[in-house]
Specification:
The structure is a single chain. The chain is an alpha+beta fold and 413 residues long. Helix content is 55%, strand content 16%. The chain folds into three domains: 3-125, no CATH class; 196-261, Helix Hairpins (Orthogonal Bundle), CATH 1.10.287; 269-403, Heat Shock Protein 90, CATH 3.30.565.10. It has a five-stranded mixed β-sheet with strand order 6-8-9-11-10, with helices on one face. Strand 8 (329-334) and strand 9 (337-341) form a beta hairpin. The chain is rod-shaped.
C-alpha cells in the first residue's frame, strides 16, 4: 500500500472513531436528559395523585392515573406492592411511556406520561448527529488525502531524481519542493548535497585518471621503442609483451576518461547493420580484426549508429570472448540486435548481477584481465543509444546482446 493510501486510511479510521465516540456521547446525553425530565414529571404527577386520593377509589383526573393498571410494567408493580414508590420507562398504549407507581392500602396507584415525543426528538437528534459526523468524516478524509497526496508527490519527485542520479546523471537535482520546511525538504536537500559531493569526487577521479594516463603515455611509448632495440630472445619478448600490455591498459584508461567526460559526441548515421558488421570484420577495423569470429545474418535491419563507436563495442566484445572464452565465437545479426557468443565458462556471477566494473572480473575469472573492456563497450553502447545486455547462454558460454536504435525520423517528414 502506498504512503498516500496509508495516510488516508489512518485519517479515515481516526475520523470514524472520533465521530462514533462523539455520536455516542451526544446520544447518551440526550437520552439521559429526556429520561430524567420524563421521570421527574411522572413522579410529580404521582405525588399529586397520591395527595388527592381519598381512599374511596376516586383518583384525581389527568396524567393517565389508574388503580391496578394492567399495562403497568411488572417490576414496577412488584415494587409498589412492597410499599415502595418508583418509576420506569416501558411500553404504553400509544408507544413508549414513563410510568410511576406507588402502593397504598394494598392498592397500586400509577400514572403514565407519554414518551413518544421524547423518543422522536432523540431519533431526530441521532439522525442530525449521524449526518454531521458523516460530513465531517468526508471533509476530514478529503483534506487528509490532499495533504497525503502532496507529501507523496514530493517524495515521488525525490525518488525519481534519486533513481536518475543512481543511473549516473549526477547533474540531476531535486530542488526546492514548495515553501514547506519539513522533513521531506530536508531529505531533498540532503540528496542534492550528496549528488553534488559525488559529482565533485567523480570529476576529481576522472581528471586524475586522465592525467595519469597522459603522463604514462609518453614514457611507455619510449619504453616500447627501446624494447624494440633489445637483442632477440625470450627475455626480450617478455619485456615487449608486458610493455604492450601496459600501453594497452593506458590507452583503455584514456578511452574510459573520454567516455566519462562525454566530450566526444557520436556521429550517427542510418546504415544497414549486416553489411556494416561484415565490412568492419573483413577490414580488420576491430581490435582483433574479426579473426576467429563467424558472422551470421539472420535478418538485416537499418539502424542509427556511429560506425566508429560500434567498431569499438564489437572490438571489445570480441576481445573479451576470445581472451576469456573458447571458440567458436559467433556474431549474429537479428534485425537491430547483435549478439556475440563464445563457448567458454560464461560471465562471472558478479558481472551478471552488478554489470561490468572497472578493474574487477569477479570470483569466477575467465582468464584474468583488468575489467576495462566490457566497461568501454558499455560506455560506447550508451553513447550511441544502444543497450548492452550480458548473460550466459542456456547451452553454455557467454552471450553479449547489443540492441541498437532504429533509424532516425526524417526531419522533413
Amino acid at each position: 500500500m502506498t504512503l498516500r493510501r496509508q495516510i488516508a486510511a489512518v485519517i479515515a479510521l481516526v475520523s470514524c472513531l472520533v465521530a462514533l465516540a462523539v455520536g455516542l456521547l451526544v446520544h447518551q446525553a440526550s437520552v439521559r436528559q429526556h429520561t430524567d425530565q420524563a421521570r421527574k414529571s411522572a413522579l410529580t404527577a404521582l405525588d399529586a395523585v397520591l395527595t388527592g386520593y381519598d381512599g374511596t377509589g376516586e383518583l384525581v383526573a389527568g396524567w393517565h392515573a389508574a388503580e391496578g393498571d394492567p399495562e403497568l410494567p411488572p417490576e414496577l408493580r412488584q415494587l409498589a406492592l412492597r410499599g415502595r414508590q418508583g418509576s420506569a420507562l416501558g411500553p404504553g398504549p400509544a408507544g413508549p411511556a414513563m410510568w410511576a407507581a406507588a402502593g397504598t392500602d394494598g392498592r397500586v396507584l400509577s400514572v403514565r406520561i407519554d414518551y413518544a415525543e421524547d423518543a422522536r426528538a432523540i431519533a431526530e437528534l441521532d439522525r442530525a448527529v449521524a449526518v454531521g459526523a458523516a460530513l465531517s468524516v468526508l471533509v476530514t478524509v478529503l483534506a487528509g488525502v490532499l495533504a497525503a497526496d502532496r507529501i507523496s508527490s514530493r517524495l515521488r519527485t525525490a525518488a525519481r531524481t534519486a533513481r536518475t542520479i543512481a543511473r549516473g546523471d549526477l547533474d540531476a537535482r531535486i530542488g526546492p519542493l514548495g515553501r514547506a520546511r519539513d522533513e521531506v525538504a530536508e531529505l531533498a536537500a540532503a540528496v542534492d548535497s550528496m549528488s553534488a559531493a559525488l559529482r565533485s569526487r567523480l570529476v576529481g577521479e576522472q581528471r586524475f585518471t586522465a592525467d595519469v594516463a597522459h603522463e604514462l603515455r609518453t614514457p611507455l611509448t619510449g619504453l616500447l621503442t627501446a624494447s624494440e632495440l633489445l637483442p632477440p630472445g625470450r627475455p626480450t619478448e617478455l619485456v615487449r609483451d608486458r610493455v604492450r600490455a601496459l600501453r594497452d591498459l593506458t590507452e583503455d584508461l584514456l578511452e574510459v576518461s573520454r567516455l566519462d567526460s562525454g566530450a566526444d559526441a557520436p556521429e550517427l548515421a542510418d546504415l544497414p547493420l549486416g553489411p556494416l558488421l561484415a565490412r568492419l570484420l573483413a577490414a580488420g577495423g576491430t581490435a582483433v580484426g574479426g579473426g576467429g569470429a563467424e558472422l551470421r545474418v539472420v535478418a538485416d535491419a537499418v539502424v542509427s549508429t556511429d560506425p566508429r563507436r560500434l567498431d569499438r563495442v564489437l572490438a571489445n566484445l570480441l576481445a573479451n570472448a576470445q581472451r576469456h572464452g573458447r571458440p567458436p565465437v559467433v556474431v549474429t545479426v537479428e534485425g537491430s540486435t547483435v549478439t556475440v557468443r563464445d563457448h567458454g565458462p560464461g560471465f562471472p556471477e558478479e558481472v551478471l548481477r552488478e554489470g561490468p566494473r572497472r578493474f574487477r572480473t569477479g570470483a569466477r575469472e575467465r582468464g584474468g584481465g583488468h575489467g576495462l573492456g566490457l566497461t568501454i563497450a558499455q560506455g560506447h553502447a550508451r553513447a550511441i543509444g544502444a543497450e548492452l545486455r550480458l548473460s550466459d547462454h542456456p547451452d553454455g558460454g557467454a552471450l553479449a546482446r547489443l540492441v541498437l536504435p532504429g533509424p532516425r525520423a526524417d526531419p522533413g517528414a
